[in-house]
Amino acid sequence: xxxxxxxxxxxxxxxxxxxxxxxxxxxxxxxxxxxxxxxxxxxxxxxxxxxxxxxxxxxxxxxxxxxxxxxxxxxxxxxxxxxxxxxxxx
Length: 90
Fold this sequence. Notes:
This protein has 90 residues and is mainly alpha-helical. It contains 3 helices and no strands. It has one domain. Helix content is 83%, strand content 0%. The chain is elongated, with a radius of gyration of 18 Å.
């Protein structure tokens, strides 16, 4: 966290204070992952694929994307805490 805060501190020195709704921004981080999950599910279900290899890739991506979503969900609270720390030091 120390390096992250140092980075943000330097950024703010050059640009100015950051005023953001961090929760909303972090929640938007789910969108691209969910879009990829939807596409991969369509490949898995042969809705958007042309052959078995592509269907297999869809299966692999579904599993990987679900794992990525779980990891991101676990990180969101910690990231929000870090980002809200910026408001306290600004």
